[in-house]
Design goal:
about 280 residues, 12 strands, 3 helices, alpha+beta
């Protein structure tokens, strides 16, 4: 029979005993040489060092330090200038909004309206205009203008001095005078009487032959058209505290009189009033 091979019994694995002698382990460890100091480069040798751009510290040379400081301060000054401009624009816009709100509130509270004007009467001494010849004698007119402020309940009109009133025919000024200064209370009607004289060039009215002929025909028909114009500086009073600045009021009235001598009956065809600075009120 063939011989059978039996496996040998397994022996227990034993761990080596701990080393209790550290000097022996240190003696068996390999020795290491200390690092040698870097050798100095031989004279005349140069090196090129590449530094990343994000790590470059840009320091200006001393001869350009002042220029660098000026250039570096420009962005800060520009930012300050832009900030100042923005603040100024915002402040101006705020003032405009507040002014618009104040004007709107004043309009809603006081409801200002333009005074109405009409020619109450005209007393003329202009019969010499019908005579022949170049220049006519000076014309004298006593005009009475009716100023009606009845549409305003809380707004008074302060008529300042220096106003002008003129009466013209077909574009030729016949007489002129001054508008008196007075204060017109709310819901008040005032008739202003004023003498007018000395219109035209050199105090006389220069009418052409065609205008004189037309005037003669209209005087015989009892319908002579005249134009009464007034420029009056006024100041509006809103209540008892608020007042506006002085502005010029332009009034133009078209009237028709029946005669050129004595107290004439004036028929109003309509009056217009213009106030440009206060057009949003009137």
């Amino acid at each position: 029979m063939a011989d059978r091979v039996h496996p040998a019994p397994l022996l227990p694995v034993s761990t080596p005993p701990p080393d209790t002698n550290p000097d022996a382990s240190a003696e068996t460890a390999p020795l290491r040489r200390p690092p040698s100091p870097p050798l100095a480069p031989p004279p005349g040798t140069s090196y090129i060092v590449h530094v990343p751009k994000d790590q470059v510290l840009r320091v200006p040379p001393p001869d350009r330090a002042s220029r660098y400081s000026k250039l570096a301060a420009r962005p800060a000054r520009r930012r300050l200038l832009r900030r100042a401009c923005c603040c100024a624009c915002c402040a101006l816009l705020l003032l405009l909004v507040l002014a618009a709100a104040f004007v709107g509130a004043a309009y809603l509270v006081f409801r200002p309206r333009a005074p109405a004007f009409s020619v109450a009467s005209l007393s003329l001494d202009a019969a010499a205009l019908l005579l022949g010849g170049g220049a006519s004698p000076p014309v004298r007119i006593d005009a009475a203008v009716r100023a009606d402020n009845g549409a305003n309940r809380k707004v008074g009109v302060d008529y300042r001095g220096g106003g002008e009133v003129a009466v013209s025919y077909s574009g030729v000024r016949l007489a002129e005078g001054r508008w008196p200064a007075f204060y017109q209370a709310p819901r008040n009607v005032t008739v202003v009487a004023m003498p007018l004289a000395g219109g035209g060039s050199g105090g006389v009215a220069l009418l052409t032959e065609q205008q004189r002929a037309s005037l003669l025909v209209e005087a015989e028909a009892g319908a002579v058209p005249l134009t009464v114009e007034a420029r009056v500086p006024v100041r509006v009073r809103l209540g008892k505290v608020l007042r506006t600045w002085t502005v010029d009021v332009w009034a133009r009235c078209e009237v028709t009189v029946d005669k050129l001598a004595g107290q004439a009956a004036a028929a109003n065809k309509g009056c217009t009033v213009k106030v440009k600075p206060l057009w949003w009120w009137w």
